[in-house]
Design a protein that fits this description.
It is a single chain. The protein has 72 residues and is an alpha+beta fold. The chain is 31% helix and 36% strand. The protein has a four-stranded antiparallel β-sheet. The longest helix is centred in the N-terminal third of the chain and has 12 residues. Bound molecules: dioxo(di-mu-sulfide)dimolybdenum. Dioxo(di-mu-sulfide)dimolybdenum (9UX) binds next to α1.
């Protein structure tokens, strides 16, 4: 069963940042869908919690160079 979260992200300035984060998250096993919204500074993520944890999502965002600011 998939779950959906909205993750608040810091450090995104332009639309290329959006693509960078979307691509970083899509590489993780268990990520079903990702949409990053620049003006909202949020990633809307559908994922399979049996395959990927919020902590993995946090790490992927941080490894890409942005800040994980929590779930909304
Ligand atoms: Mo745009 Mo984002 O020049 O790190 S890609 S600001």
């Amino acid at each position: 069963i998939n779950e959906k979260v909205a993750v608040k992200i810091g450090g995104m300035t332009c639309v290329m940042c959006v693509k960078t984060i979307e691509n970083a998250l899509k590489k993780l096993d268990g990520i079903v869908d990702v949409n990053v919204n620049l003006s909202a500074e949020k990633a809307y993520i559908t994922y399979n919690p049996k395959l990927v944890a919020i902590d993995d999502i946090k790490k992927a965002i941080e490894d890409a160079g942005y800040q994980y600011l929590g779930i909304e």
